[in-house]
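EI: anyone free to look at a 609-residue chain?
SC: sure, send it
EI:
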Amino acid sequence: MRLPHGHRPLPPPQCLHLLLFTALCFAVLKTAAAPPRTGSTGEGGIASVTQTMGTEDVSSAKDVLKQEPVSGVIALKESMKYFDADFFNDTKLREMEDGAKEFNVPAFRENRKLVALENGGLHNPSVLVFKSSWSGKTKAKENKRFEYPHTSTVHRPSNDEDTAFMSIVELGELIRTKKITSRELTDVFLRRLKRYGTVLESVITCTDDLAYWQAKEADDLLEQGKYLGPLHGIPYGLKDIIAVPQYNTTWGSETFKNQVIDMEAFVYKRLKSAGAVLVAKLVTGSLAYDDIWFGGRTRNPWNIEEFSTGSSAGPAASTSAGMVPFAIGSETAGSITYPAARCGVTALRPTFGTVARTGVMSISESLDKLGPFCRSAVDCAIVLDAIRGTDAGDPSSREISLEDPFHVDITKLTVGYLDSAEMEVVNALSAKGAKLVPFKLNYTVESVQSILNITMDVDMLAHFDNWQREGNDDAYEAQDQWPVELRRARLIPAVDYIQAQRARGRLIREVQESFTVDAFIGNVTDWELVCVGNLVGMPVMVVPTGFKSIEHPPKGGERRRTTVTTGIYAPPDHDHIALALAMAYQSVSNHHKQRPPLDDLGPNDKIHT
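SC: here you go
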């Protein structure tokens, strides 16, 4: 409905100056799409207006500013070209200016008071809910738990190092048979967290008091004959965007490093009910972007000269280094896949909506996912089974009826492989009886990367609107990351955000039509494929497949390596297929069992840990 309104006087010149200044600021940030959030993109800071706009543009802007009084129509006309909407005549621009002052701005301010004064997106979730399922079914079948494999007799190692690199299945059997207590395991991993955490810069908080209390509870239950399952008494870590009462939830940011959120995140509650023992809050890149946080930058255990990449840096590095048996991380756009690949860890990015995100800092409500970093695909299946589920605090979460990955017959599967696939995995799965065929994922949408950036950046800004308004972006740890992207996001029109979602819908339909296999194998860090996978909500397993030499190794040899990985992708709601194929591959390989050289880099390596 439109309300009639008459002519109004122009606003004072200082208001128009501010409007034009906004347009000039946007010119600095007019790149089409942001780079992957897996590494820094420059020296930090923003190029000057003259560098970005050019002398001619700046001269024109200065000429406009010199006019007294400056016409609101002229200022608005100048700004509209940055919205790709410079087609209005002066009469329409004056009408738009009046309407914005009378209707838009008061509404914006009222809505911010209602929902945007708290940063992080933990409250007031959007009613625009993304559902990643392709089935169209609204009611899930009974969600049965997986039937875990039984292990043969497991012996307790004679040293902590060997214990630290045992799988969840093995550690669980030691606890079940009372060959080790949860208290003893907790001691082992807390010592490793404190020994290597400062080297890798991967730990924010060790939760000693909570860990020993939960370990005692696990041991007491076992003495009473109550065994909760394979995670009973098993230590683990959480990415520090996940809320745990009485402990800081820092989001990796100097601004929030003393923040305590009095809330039990859904994923924490699930793991607590499974008997797991929280030993650490692990590094997240600041506000869940890349591997830079307020205490440093997280390193790769396989080559500590390089960084882990991705905001789930702490979970990846800590699991790789045997500091925890498993950890929970998150992904919006590459933050599980990139650090898992760099650190040589088996990890699962589940179907969107599989794990409720209540109590977790939000970047994008239609992209964020929680998933496990583990020693093996078997361990990933065990952890996923414990944490999957829906919660009222996360409207996008669903009860997804996954089949039991331990009962999938891979000989009945047709598996595609991209040109980027690791052929060792292709050949191994073929030898195990799966049908392997060349494959290409076809779609016509060319703006995949910009769709993801528009979606993610606008959503993030909605959750950190107040943070930006208060100038906290000036204290952000990496000035070429969120500060630049969120300033640009401030000037994305609502209509173009919706158009991006419509384009996303087209992409999803085309990917669904093209997905003619049960799963496919391909590069897990290809940025285009990372964007497609996250926009569609499809699951992927990150699987270590080998090692290669580092660049420019020291003379005389060294043990640092570059890890090689691949991805096993499945359609949404078919995580069990990706898990089953990863388990089949790992049953005939041992790359996932290798240990990084933290204490023995080589005789001539000058790096000291």
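EI: The first strand starts at residue 203 and ends at 206.
SC: 👍
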